[in-house]
Write a structure and sequence with these properties.
The complex is a heterodimer. Chain A has 8 helices and 10 strands. By secondary structure, chain A is α/β, with parallel strands linked by helices. Chain A folds into 2 domains: 167 residues, Rossmann fold, CATH 3.40.50.300; 66 residues, no CATH class. By secondary structure, chain B is mainly alpha-helical. The longest helix of chain B is centred in the first third of the chain and has 33 residues. Chain B is globular and about 70 Å long. The N and C termini of chain B lie far apart (51 Å). Classes of the chains: A alpha/beta, B mainly alpha. The interface between A and B is medium-sized, with 29 and 22 residues.
């Protein structure tokens, strides 16, 4: 993996909140067309990592490189390099499903309204939301909200897509649907980072599992390798058995 | 009561409406600026605004209008008509109340939407203008409607500095007709009609924000 320059490389991410170390020299490499699954119980720093990478928290120390270019996280939002799908979706409540996407395309990407509408229509179709395009977020089901949040995050054409606990509010059927979408994003060559403690989701993904503890990765494994030989990965086996 | 008194009452009613609408406009504009400032983490700014609003909310509007027109304006050498002075004084008073309403309205909106907007590359202005304010406004509408109703009633205080609004016109008519019961009843009815119309308008406006209540 190290010879491949076409990747996201996180080096020594450190983040403290109220003098408590949340990320402790955190390192991660994710190539394009690959999903990194950050696994671990609540409070180990999974969400803080995604928030820091997306400039919602200030990074105390560390370096980010994308495709061999060092990135300034302060500009990551303006350059649309990363999209984040929040655990609570955070859709714009005063806009319909279609407007949630059109607004971003017009105001953030500065697209003309006709082009924005075309892109929104095709995204809504892709995520099976055409019939719900005029509904407000409060009128959508959990699965529809999740699909809309993913559609909106991809609308800015980022290189990295982060999903924070994407199945925490979903039933097993919808978990399978989200897994399919994530696998599809991987096929489209996105760098995908998923945080979860939902083993049923992890079982449906093909990528690398990284078990987190106290703000750092303590064990990593390829998904196929892990499910074929779980005994080789002591910490991961223990975590998946408990969960 | 003589029909010729209708004209001064109509003039007074329009002036009352003018004072209430312009004062609310000043109150809303200033209140929005102060309300947004109160949601920031700037402690010094917040303390200053809190201090000003405490003074304004803790003293009678009657004294504020008189102080503004008879003491402050002459001291700093600004000449204003009594109507303009009343509108500004009442507007500033209103901004103190509305700043708290607007602050609560903004804080009632889930912070996550602001974070989502930031990650999607939207500016703070775009986020506040198109996402936060419309939703906050929907939550604030009943309180803003109440403030407008209060200002319609409180505009009668402008009569103390010589503004011939509805109440002052009524007193003038009474001094000529000595028919206090009829005149005060009529004035009270006019105030009631104005405030009821505003309540209906606010309710209709609230229904436009259907996304809040599904």
């Amino acid at each position: 993996m190290k010879e491949n320059l076409s990747m996201l490389k996180i080096e020594n991410f450190t983040k403290k909140i109220n003098n408590q170390t949340i990320l402790d020299n955190f390192n991660l490499e994710v190539p394009h067309g690959h999903v990194a699954i950050l696994l671990g119980p609540s409070g180990v720093g999974k969400s803080t990592f995604l928030r820091t990478l997306n400039n919602l928290e200030k990074l105390d120390a560390g370096k980010v490189t994308l495709d061999n270019q060092q990135m300034d996280l302060k500009t990551i939002n303006k350059t649309h390099l990363s999209g984040l799908v929040f655990q609570n979706f955070n859709l714009f409540e005063n806009m319909t499903a279609e407007e949630n996407i059109i607004f971003v395309l017009e105001k953030s990407l500065k697209l003309k309204s006709k082009e924005a509408k075309q892109i929104a229509t095709s995204l809504l179709e892709k995520y099976s939301l055409t019939d719900s395009k005029d509904k407000y977020p409060s009128q959508l089901s959990g699965g529809q909200k999740q699909r809309l949040a993913i559609a909106r995050a991809t609308s800015i054409k980022p290189k990295i897509i982060c999903l924070d606990e994407p199945t925490s509010a979903l039933d097993p059927y919808l978990t399978s649907m989200v897994a399919e979408i994530i696998n599809e994003l991987v096929k489209q060559n996105y760098i995908v980072i998923v945080t979860t403690h939902d083993i049923s989701l992890v079982k449906k993904l093909n990528g690398t599992i990284h078990l987190m503890k106290s703000g750092k990765i303590v064990e990593s494994a390829d998904t196929n390798e892990f499910w074929n030989n779980p005994e080789k990965f002591i910490l991961l086996s223990k975590f998946t058995e408990i969960n | 009561m003589n029909i010729t008194y209708i004209y001064p009452l109509l003039y007074g009613t329009l002036l009352t409406l003018k004072i209430a609408i312009l004062s609310t406009s000043i109150g809303l504009t200033l209140g929005t600026i102060l309300g947004f400032s109160l949601t920031t983490s700037n402690k010094l700014l917040n303390s200053i605004i809190d201090g000003i609003t405490t003074v304004i909310r803790g003293t009678p509007m009657l004294i504020q209008i008189a102080f503004f027109y008879y003491a402050l304006l002459p001291t700093i050498g600004i000449k204003l008509t009594a109507i303009a002075a009343a509108i500004i004084a009442i507007g500033i008073n209103s901004s103190a109340y509305l700043s708290q309403v607007i602050k609560s309205g903004i804080l009632s909106i889930n912070k996550g939407q602001t974070e989502a907007a930031k990650v999607l590359g939207l500016t703070t202005y775009q986020t506040n203008r198109y996402i936060i304010l419309p939703q906050a406004l929907a939550n604030m509408l009943p309180a803003i409607g109440n403030e407008l109703i209060t200002l319609i009633k409180d505009s009668s205080l402008a009569s103390t500095i010589g503004v011939m609004e509805l109440f002052a016109q009524g007193k003038n008519i009474i001094s000529q007709t000595y028919d206090a019961i009829k005149v005060y009843t009529l004035i009270a009815l006019i105030y009631l009609i104005l405030t009821t119309l505003i309540s209906i308008a606010v309710t209709m406006f609230e229904r436009k924000f259907k996304y809040v209540k599904n």
